[in-house]
Design brief:
Strand order of the largest sheet: 1-2-3-6-7-8-9-10
CATH class: Alpha Beta
Distance between the termini: 39 Å
Largest sheet: 8 strands, parallel, barrel
Order of helices and strands: HEHEHEEEHHEHEHEHEHEH
Strand content: 5-15%
CATH architecture: Alpha-Beta Barrel
Number of helices: 10
CATH topology: TIM Barrel
Mean pLDDT: 92
Number of strands: 10
Low-confidence stretches: 1-21, 23-34
Structural class: alpha/beta
Helix content: 25-40%
């Protein structure tokens, strides 16, 4: 994939395309009583400095679509000064972050960095730097050679996890959190924590014998203690591990089938839950089309929730309609995602963003 900083010509063309895509279509009809301030967010992945520079050029297009929140997932792809050994190749530079912040501030877009925590410490056969440089922090250091095999729940191995109870972990991870909060001048940090399947391993000398809910809650609470209590910032996270996959009908990816859902009652209520669901139909649900019970579940528990979608426009529209029908003010709006870096000019043309823009603009009034 070509990843280059867009020229002024490409920059202008991207903005024109985004204006056409997001600003000229008629708004959906929303009852006046339902109109309220709502967030429209965009989640973006930057795996190189070039990706981040491309994202800068997309900011005008995002703003024209009504985006006022940009979650920038950097993980190990930042040029960390605190732990240079944990940098991936061609990491995002500090000066690029500052340019992104300037572009977003000029258009009223809040920027929140994201660091994938606990799970997602590998992808396919590649293990990410933390567990390469500090293999003793791995939840299962002597298991899953080549990142292959079956996990204890019978699922094909997905991603490695760090051990949240290891005493050497937090000093390192908190350094990374601090550096991202500081360089992004951020008032919040998104800590990820989705799709955690390797957890509370029976052979871990610290986690063995504990429930998955206990261990997951410990990971959440430790992150919260540092980000919120010590740094005074807001914490966001992916919400799937806090949902019962059987009861909701979401299954094992968009919810939990290994007991971590019970941690929902063990963590602070002021964490923002980014509740992601992507499908137009769930096999475990009896309804002919997808039903999304989770925004109400989180709202009833006292959490603020930011429903999150991907590329299926039918699912986007249905999810927004159902989530905005939840009484009260706990539903914050909607977040769109992409799961790979995009070329210049592509963000404003995303079908999911155009659909969400239409719905959220109408609900804003």
């Amino acid at each position: 994939m070509s990843k280059r900083f867009p020229s002024f010509v490409a920059f202008g063309l991207a903005a024109v395309l985004a204006l056409t895509a997001c600003a000229t279509k008629p708004a959906a009809t929303v009852p006046a009583a339902a109109k309220r301030p709502l967030v429209l967010g965009m989640h973006a992945i930057t795996e190189t400095d070039a990706d981040a520079r491309t994202l800068i050029g997309e900011v005008p297009a995002l703003a024209r679509c009504g985006v006022d929140l940009l979650i920038v997932e950097v993980d190990y792809w930042y040029d960390y000064a605190s732990h240079p050994e944990l940098r991936m190749e061609n990491p995002v530079k500090k000066e690029t972050v500052k340019a992104l912040l300037a572009a977003c501030r000029a258009r009223g877009i809040r920027v929140v960095p994201q660091f994938q925590s606990l799970g997602h410490q590998s992808w396919a056969e590649k293990t990410f730097p933390l567990l390469v440089e500090y293999p003793h922090l791995d939840e299962t250091p002597d298991k899953y050679p080549g990142n292959k095999g079956k996990d204890p729940w019978g699922t094909d191995f997905y991603c490695r996890s760090w051990c949240p109870l290891h005493p050497d972990l937090l000093p390192i991870v908190n350094d990374l959190y601090d550096e991202l909060l500081d360089v992004f001048e951020a008032d919040a940090l998104h800590v990820g924590m989705d799709e955690v399947f390797i957890i509370a391993d029976a052979d871990c000398p610290r986690c063995g014998g504990k429930t998955t809910a206990e261990v997951f809650a410990r990971a959440v609470n430790d992150a919260y203690d540092h980000i919120v209590r010590e740094r005074g910032k807001e914490m966001m996270m992916w919400a799937d591990r806090l949902l019962d996959g059987q009861a909701t009908g979401y299954g094992l990816w968009e919810a939990s089938m290994n007991g971590t859902d019970k941690a929902i009652d063990m963590i602070p209520k002021d964490i923002v839950m980014c509740d992601w669901h992507y499908e137009p139909k769930y096999p475990r649900q009896t309804a002919p089309k997808s039903v999304f019970p989770s925004p109400r579940i989180f709202a009833d528990k006292g959490f603020r929730v930011l429903p999150t979608s991907y590329r299926n426009v039918e699912a986007v529209n249905r999810f927004i309609d159902q989530s905005l029908a939840v009484p009260g003010d706990k539903v914050l709006g909607h977040l769109c995602t992409v799961w790979h870096p995009l070329k210049a000019g592509h963000y404003g043309k995303l079908k999911q963003l155009k659909a969400a823009s239409k719905k959220i603009k109408a609900a804003r009034g």
